Give the backbone structure.
Amino acid sequence: MNAPATNATNGMPAESHNLSVYVANKPGVLARIAQVFARRGYNIDSLVVSPAGDGHYSRMTITAQGSREGLDQVMRQLAKLIDVMRCVDHTGEDAVVREMALVKVGAGIEDRTAALQVVDHFGAKTVDLTDRSMTVLATGESGKLDALVGLLSRHRIIELVRTGKVVMARGEQVT
Amino acid sequence: MTTDAMDGGQALIRCLENEGVEFIFGYSGGAAIPVFDALVTTRTKIRMVLVRHEQGAVHMADGYARATGKPGVVLVTSGPGATNTLTGILTAHMDSVPLVAITGQQIRPMLGKDAFQEADIFGITMPVVKHSYLVKDTNDIPRVVREAFLIASTGRPGPVLVDLPKDVTSGPCTTDLHAEPDLPGYHPNADAFDRGEVVRIAEALARARRPVILAGHGVLIARAERELQLLAERIQAPVTTTLLGKGAFPETHPLSLGWMGMHGTAYANKAVSECDLILAVGSRFDDRIVGQQDRFCRDAVRIHIDVDSAEMGKMIPCHHTCVGDARAVLQELLLHVDALDTAEWLARIAEFRRRYPLRFRRKGGLKMQHVIQEFYRMTEGRAIVVTDVGQHQMWAAQFYLTDHPNRFLSSGGAGTMGFGLPAAIGAQFGNPEATVVAFVGDGGFQMTSYELATAALHRLPIKVVVLNNHYLGMVRQWQELFYDDRRSGVDLEGNPDFVKLAESYPGVRGFNLRRGADVRKVIRRALDVTDGPCLINAEVEKTDNVFPMIPAGKPLEDMIVERPRHRMEKPTGST
């Protein structure tokens, strides 16, 4: 994400945080937000941006490592940006966190059955199939996708694309 | 274009008029021609001050803003014209100064194609602006201008950049010039604050035996001087300020400790290191104030009132924090505080004052402090003092006491050399009747001395006092104290004859000052000049040092008040 690879934790324990940032859909917003992280030495692990509301707004879900104190500062700086409506940390909170992965596996006709058993077990789907490869679509929590990818890597993984996390607060809480 | 249709440039000028703009500090260029043309075709009453370099324009707008409290306006062209504003924008951003910087830009179809004088100024300035715009539609101009002024001047003020492609300013503007701002994400926290927290702050104050109030620039921005003084007098708490907070509390008041920090008064630093409660209002606990972060007021109750929630806990964790406008919060606080008996504490502070007064030795060569102190006496403390950056800046802050708001202008956060002269020009434009004194060093002065032309052209009666030690004195001081006096990159050999330089501009008077005995006489002659700028070249002692001094990153307790006999270790806590 064009940010230095080191995490500025100031000696505090680093933990993974899921920030949901609701922003005006204007040019330069992503750059301003990325700069808040980069200037303080934070690396963004994953970032999902999509239109929200009536199209005048965007939702950004940002996963980053850092101490709670450090990320509190980052969130205050984010909230201060004119184009940011609100910024909420859903870490350790009652929130639904999901991710999607597309895995292209080099499984030919002879070892396809084994791969399909894994796909079936994880509730994933095959969305593309050729003589030499199959593409698997899976959704779930990041840990589940890690496990799926681990098992599929016994076959040859040709390509792997993950979306990064999306988050929604449970129940009546606002994301 | 039909006769009654406006183009974007004309709409821009009308919108600036609606914002009450009196001056534009600018420099023309290809991409900005439609706007400069509109200055003529609209017959506007806004005065365009043509500067000599874009950096000068921004510092002028900055000085105007600091001295008047109104946003300063800059107008420059694209590419290098725009990038030359960068240092000035940083300076304003660090010190929370309201500015609107308008830059010309290549036409829209050429953006991103490395066209002539194209620079991505929107991207380049992003980390040093409060907000910025690249305007793509002529009809957006009225809304963008309204938003730019609103953002620049409310909440915690700051610079806003408006980048205007030439085809946007040339195109027709068909919309209403009175546009409403559309800023759903902007909450400047003007009056909304936690009243319960104010009650808890009042309770903490009631328990304090040795309270100190630290007043920052935020007090001046919020115009909260009166409330601050009422509070200090009611609870009999001594008040210290930050460098930029000078003027938030009268420095001649018996409860004033002067300003604190790296080169602040020893008695202020002593008081802060011994207090049992610190109430910081409108200060961001700059590293020049706190020294070693984890030692700052370690055992005291720490209270922070500031309009910017992002300052809470950034440098110093506090027991009580209140995000809100300083004036509104202090007004509320005054409803809840009663008189305190601090007689014992004030007696101890009086002892600090006796033991560690601000002073200097008059023997030897001419001293900067002597020149500054005489200026203070002869102007009866009424001048608007503008400084550059370095030793003279610290001495000006020490020896020119500030009793009134917006009368001490200095680049604090950025420490921008070259700020002094152009900022003084802006301050004088905003206050034509005031005596404006610019204390500058021979280093910083040469970074923007070309703006003497602007001062001369407009016959501004600024007193430019070059405190000339032929060195970059502050760096030389650090080299003396921390680097075994190895002087590197600090000797300004090759300085011009500043009096001749000044007098080469039409109508500028120059005076040399070499002896202590002549100080009053030369200042009198300078103060008598009222029809244009004058310059005093004061040949001062070359190797004097500024004290008190807290080595960077050290706790306040490590303050030294005179040159130590032993070699000191190199500071590592801050620059």
In short: The beta strands of chain A are 15-24, 44-52, 57-66, 84-89, 95-106, 125-129, 134-140, 156-162, 166-169.
